[in-house]
Each structure stands twice: as structure tokens, then as C-alpha cells.
Design a protein that fits this description.
Largest sheet: 7 strands, parallel
Number of domains: 2
Radius of gyration: 18 Å
Number of strands: 15
Oligomer: single chain
Structural class: alpha/beta
Number of helices: 10
Helix content: 25-40%
Distance between the termini: 18 Å
Strand order of the largest sheet: 6-5-4-9-12-14-15
Length: 252
């Protein structure tokens, strides 16, 4: 794995957990302590993280993380290319679900249907969709999660059951031969309900998610129909996708 990919994954982890030790970095990537320290130095020098005793934490201004991540990938980056292609799959009069995901969010600027309906529990998605005159938007209610800017809880899941989708566009924290992984336990219930209510499930994931697991396995590969990514899969993962009849679209 290239250093840039490790740095982005470290930043993603910090957005969820706030702190990370040198040992945790070594374990996550299977690297030496010297390599982990070099990664920490690069992140610290960029202003993306703050050093602590034995590790790193987020600076007070989380915008620094976003700025650093943007510098690692020149525009158009992999996520934007994935989003642009995924937007072409949204047809006139489709009912679609848009997940809480920075990659899924990249669909929104490229939507072109004459009329469609979008359902989301992401505050940022809803704000961006408000600028799309041809898209009718439903924002699912629930408890506001300030860090990830989405709504969750029983009321969110209950309201979701009122919809049937033509297509669901989901993100992922990790993808392996065993399935699709997510950060939180509540994610798995939400994702499974979405899949059960969608004629077609499309997962969007950049190369940093491929071949990795995370805390909770939310979906099996057989639950999804299409994977859109920006890097060829390993032979093992490609074979697993083929065995589960998943169409893989690679955006170069």
C-alpha cells in the first residue's frame, strides 16, 4: 500500500475515533514502527494531526483534515470520477437512496434526470440535493449525529420502511471477499433494510477500501449488484465478486 493511501485511511479512522497510537497504526497496516512514525511525521508537518504521547489526535479544526485529503488527490479525484459515473445510472423517475458517504455524495453534482426522487439520512446530501430542481428530496428524521452529519435511531429506520427504491447507492468502510464492512453496529441494520427495499444495490468505494475489513460486516457480496471503484481488484476479490454475480465497474 502506498503511503498516501495509508494516510487517508489514518485520517478516516481519526474522524471516527479521535486518537490513534503508533501500535494501532502498525497493526492496521502491518508495518514497522519506523514506517508508522514516518507517516505520523508527514501528517503532523501537513497540519492534519497533532502529536500526543505515543500517537496522534485530531487538531481542533477538522477542516485541516479535509484540506490535506484534498491535496493527496488532484481534481478530479477518484471519488469524483466514481460519483460522476454512478450518476449516469440514475434514470428519469427513479426513486433512489443515497447513503452517508463522501463518495456517494459525489453523485449529486452530476445528476441529470428530468425528474427523480432521492431519499437520504445525510444532512450534507440533503443540502446539496436542495440545489437540484429536478430532484425531490426526502430527508429521514432521527437523532442528529454531529460528527458525521447524519440522522440515526429507530425513527430513521422506521421511516425508511415507507419507501421502495429502484436503486440504492451505498458507501463502505471496507470490502473483502467476506463482504462489505462499516464503522458502526447501527450501520449494518440500516444497510440491510435498504438492500431489502431496493431493486438494485450499488456500492461506491475508492481504492483505499478494497481488500480491507472494518469493525462490522454489514452485507455479503451476494447482497449487492454493482461495485464501482477506481482501481483493479486483487485476483481473490475479483473472483469473489464474480462468484457472487457482482458487476464490477472500474473507473480509471
Amino acid at each position: 500500500m502506498y503511503q498516501e493511501e495509508r494516510l487517508l485511511r489514518i485520517l478516516t479512522h481519526l474522524e471516527e475515533q479521535d486518537t490513534m497510537t503508533v501500535g494501532e497504526i502498525c497493526t492496521m497496516f502491518g508495518i514497522s514502527r519506523d514506517t508508522a512514525r514516518r507517516d505520523i511525521v508527514k501528517l503532523t508537518e501537513s497540519g492534519a494531526v497533532t502529536r500526543t504521547h505515543g500517537g496522534i489526535t485530531l487538531p481542533r479544526l477538522e477542516q485541516k483534515i479535509e484540506a490535506y485529503a484534498a491535496r493527496l488527490h488532484n481534481e478530479p479525484d477518484g471519488k469524483m470520477r466514481i460519483g460522476r459515473h454512478a450518476a449516469k445510472l440514475v434514470l428519469d423517475h427513479d426513486m433512489v437512496f443515497l447513503d452517508v458517504s463522501t463518495t456517494v455524495q459525489c453523485i449529486i453534482p452530476h445528476l441529470k434526470p428530468a425528474h427523480a426522487t432521492a431519499v437520504t439520512h445525510s444532512i450534507d446530501n440533503a443540502c446539496m440535493l436542495a440545489d437540484q430542481a429536478t430532484i425531490q428530496t426526502h430527508l429521514l428524521g432521527g437523532i442528529v449525529q454531529p460528527k458525521t452529519r447524519h440522522l440515526s435511531g429507530y425513527s430513521t429506520l422506521d421511516k425508511l420502511r415507507d419507501f421502495q427504491f429502484d436503486k440504492a447507492f451505498l458507501g463502505a468502510a471496507g470490502i473483502s471477499e467476506a463482504g462489505i464492512y462499516y464503522h458502526y453496529e447501527e450501520d449494518i441494520y440500516m444497510k440491510r433494510e435498504i438492500v431489502s427495499r431496493s431493486r438494485q444495490t450499488i456500492v461506491l468505494a475508492d481504492c483505499t477500501k478494497l481488500g480491507h475489513t472494518h469493525y462490522y460486516r454489514g452485507l455479503s457480496l451476494s447482497d449487492i449488484d454493482i461495485l464501482i471503484t477506481n482501481q483493479p481488484l486483487s485476483p481473490e476479490l475479483a473472483n469473489a465478486m464474480k462468484a457472487n454475480h457482482v458487476q464490477v465497474i472500474i473507473i480509471s
